[in-house]
Amino acid sequence: MTDGPDDGAAEREGAVPTDYDGTAYPQAESASDLAGVPDGLSRLWTPHRIAYIEAGGVPSSHECPFCVAPTLSDEQGLIVHRGEHAFVLMNLFPYNSGHLLICPYRHVAGYDETTEAESAEMTHLTQTAMRVLRATSGPAGFNIGMNQGAVAGAGVAAHLHQHVVPRWASDANFFPIIAQTKAIPKLLGDARRELAEAWPV
Ligand SMILES: [Zn+2]
């Protein structure tokens, strides 16, 4: 891998690119493996990313996605619920269908930097997110947690976010093993609308 200003170099040289949350993108298909005349391009079929495309593109790398999201419409920002001190949004790069993030509006990195009002509302929103997910999709369990700092796996280390990941007994299928790809059966926009409509007022 070369050092240099060209951000595309690493991708072209075969390193697995990761999203802002640390999840590896699925491997792109080489054109030489596809039917037809190879054109030297790789293709990555990620239909859930239509939500980003429709939103007008990925925020540039110097913008914090969790500061930008609340400035957009619910649909564009993939926001499920806006509280007073914190909000709930779909993870753009979900580990599973219904993977939600609970963020304070304030750009703080550490859980210990939140005010009592912020941490109390994050707890309340986490519990409500669990209830809404149970009511809409009946998960058998949850993974809930906060990665604090890049060394601990936080992709956006500068802006605190709590993961709420619903789990089903059958969700750990063979796709991640054979294809390094997670099957996300529901499109993010559809999932956002379903959860927002089920969120208690
Ligand atoms: Zn931020």
From TrEMBL:
GO terms for molecular function: ATP:ADP adenylyltransferase activity; nucleotide binding. Keywords: Nucleotide-binding, Nucleotidyltransferase, Transferase. The keyword Nucleotide-binding applies. A motif (Histidine triad motif) lies at residues 159-163. It comes from the Bacteria. It is an enzyme of class 2 (transferase). The keyword Lyase does not apply. Its EC number is 2.7.7.53. This is ATP adenylyltransferase.
